[in-house]
Amino acid sequence: MATFFGGKALADEPAKALEPPEFFVRVVLTPDAEAWMRKTGETIWVRGLFEDEFGPDGIWLGETELTLTTSRLAHIHGIRFHPRLARLMSGVDYEVLINIGSGRKTSDLNYLDCDTLQGPISQFQGRISQVDCKLAQAMPPSKSIRRFTGQMNGKEFLSLCSSEELAMPRPAQRRNEAFCTGYVKGVIHAHDGFLSSERPIKRHFCIPRSVSDLDITRAVVKYLETSGVADHLGTYTLAALHVTYRCKPGDR
Question: How many CB atoms lie within 10 A of CB 63?
Fold first, then answer.
């Protein structure tokens, strides 16, 4: 007699044993990524996914998440699979997918661009696998806000990022939106990095989480257009953020 699990018939036969995963993942950061993570106190997020085979017809087995603070070695273990799941599978060499990013302790954005590990459990079990990570492209690698933002003047920036274009209703009409928002986000990230540096600066602005990147950029562009900025784009961008998003008592 057959029983059913997850909508599929299970034959009355001994279940194949699914060996619980136990292996290590070593996270290797580039020197600038390591320096940034330690300076900001950011953590590393590691997520392991397990399926019979990844795809629409795959059988979901489970997942695990862990956070690394100072360590760079993640121990994947302590996961147990329902014994009946094995009866639905063609074999016991299930698939593993490891995703890694920053822990979003200091920002909602992911600071890290990491390789992905994927393969059968036999490839990882009892071993140490390495994942290489670098800073995400949105992160400014420079040590100075002025140095980072000094690569473009205000006139050049506004020629690409005008209020008129950013106000267009459809994304396809805002051709330079990714560049414009990316630049402003870079200034914000650089500012936030200095808050926890060896010689921290005073917080210049406090942006509510509900405000979108596009709206932040629109506010900056409006300020720049009104100010008639030509040079010192980074300084004026910080001023725009300070004027538009002033910190209130209790803001952090």
Answer: 13
CA neighbor of 227 nearest in space, from 149, 154, 152: 154
Asked if 180 and 233 count as a contact pair (C-beta separation under 8 A), the reply is no
Q: CATH number for the domain including 33?
A: 2.60.40
Cβ–Cβ < 8 Å for 63, 76 = no
State the angle between helix axes of 177-195 and 31-40 in degrees (0 to 180), rounded to the nearest 10. Answer: 60
Classified as helix, coil or strand, 80 is: coil
DSSP state letter for 142: S
pLDDT tens for residues 79-129?
A: 888 877 777 777 788 889 898 988 877 765 677 888 888 899 999 999 999
120 and 158 in a common domain: no
* Domain shared by 96 and 157, yes or no: no
Helix, coil or strand: residue 208: coil
Q: How many domains does the chain have?
A: 2
User: Can you give the residue range of the structural domain that contains 232?
Assistant: 145-244
Residue 204 lies in a domain: yes
Domain assignment of residue 252, yes or no = no
pTM of the model: 0.51
* Spatial contact of 100 and 46, defined as CB atoms under 8 Å apart: yes
Q: Which of 87, 116, 135 is the last residue of a domain?
A: 135
* Residues whose CB falls within 8 Å of the CB of residue 99, separated by 6 or more in sequence, listed in order: 46, 47, 49, 114, 116
